[in-house]
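Troubleshooting: if your tokenizer reports a length mismatch, compare your output against this known-good record of 124 residues.
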Amino acid sequence: MADQFYQKVLMDHFKNPRNKVKIENYNFESGLDNPACGDIISMTGIIEDGVVKKIGFEGSGCVVSLASASMLTEKCLGMSIDSVLALTKDDVVAMLGMELGPNRLQCALLSLEALHKGILAYRK
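Known-good structure output:
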């Protein structure tokens, strides 16, 4: 029963992605791709006073990668950059609500890796 609920949530984020936009006047950006499956995700955002004030993503790929990016942007909006950088694989799996095989896990983590990369570059 729980799997069906999470599958519906995942499909909703895929069909109706939140924050799927390139942020104008961003102060961080990053992009990554997964050549194994063809997923491409780029993240842009605005950080003010150490907090993610705006965040968006663009990309193409499978249900898991795009839904994960949508869910991640919702989760990270308003978070401190230290809290965002502390997010792990386990946090993404918990957010998705289901166990993933190794290939799907790579898809799910692509947006988190891109976000971390962009924030680390912003810090420099």
